[in-house]
Amino acid sequence: MSEAHDWPPSCAIETLHARAAALAATRAFFAERGVLEVNTPVLASHTVLDPAIESIAVGGRYLQTSPEYHMKRLLAAGAPSIYQLGPVFRQGEQGRWHNPEFLMLEWYRLDFDANRLMLEVEELVDCLLSPAPYLCIPYRQLLADRFDIDIDTASVDDLADICAQLGYKASSTSRTEEALDLMLAAALADRGEGRVFVTEYPPDQAALARVNASKRRPHAERFELVINGVEIANGYHELADPDELAQRMAADTEKRRASGLCVPKPDERLLAAQRHGLPNCAGVALGFDRLLALKLGTDGISPVLAFDWNRA
Fold this sequence. Notes:
The chain is built from nine helices and twelve strands. By secondary structure, the chain is an alpha+beta fold. Helix 4 crosses helix 6 (176-190), helix 5 (156-165) crosses helix 6 and helix 7 (242-258) packs antiparallel against helix 8 (268-277).
């Protein structure tokens, strides 16, 4: 379709009203709890190093994939519990549930751990959608129930065999982490409709979450909320140790270099902020467009965006 014919918005005008109402309800939710709304830069000198996320570079800077780094600098400077609603950007993420530009809701709660934050996520989702039951299941258990496998003892070949049975080529499962991601997605898809918190991720998938070594099997204090098979939110009991953060950044840098990806410089301001002192807190990022799509019953996020990527 030519640009002369696809000028109208991607969504119905009624959807704009529904979005505005959902945004107002979200702001009211946090205002009632005394959580401060903030705004941080969309274009900045540094970006994330996570090998699974690719940033968009603009004039020597990066469109932010998340406001996380800046919000943590605010917390280290003495800010109270904070939240932000704003656009974020990710290179190459386009599809039914993806758009390179999307609206993210991210918030940080002082003196919360992952379990307490999950309860607040439930409250917000119930407010915006409707109340419903939630299932909480550890990562290892979810894969063990679906594939009859212990991921702590399984070999890379074992995981590759399972992925092959799921229809993925060997090239897609050359790394253990990639294979586990595919298996997790399949296990969640098989559960069908419902609200599921996946918890207790393996330590090597901690990202920026703390690792709890107190149990028989160490785990990352991380969770993801999946609704009807769609990933909605990803939260952590935030890593506060600056030395551990530096080590994880270095490890991600090496993974990116080995995979032939661009290698941004580590954010020294974030490291300095954590050395100054990140308070005990938990944080979560939630895909607002996805949640709105589930609320309105659309088959993806394009019908809830004013202009999706193809019409922007």
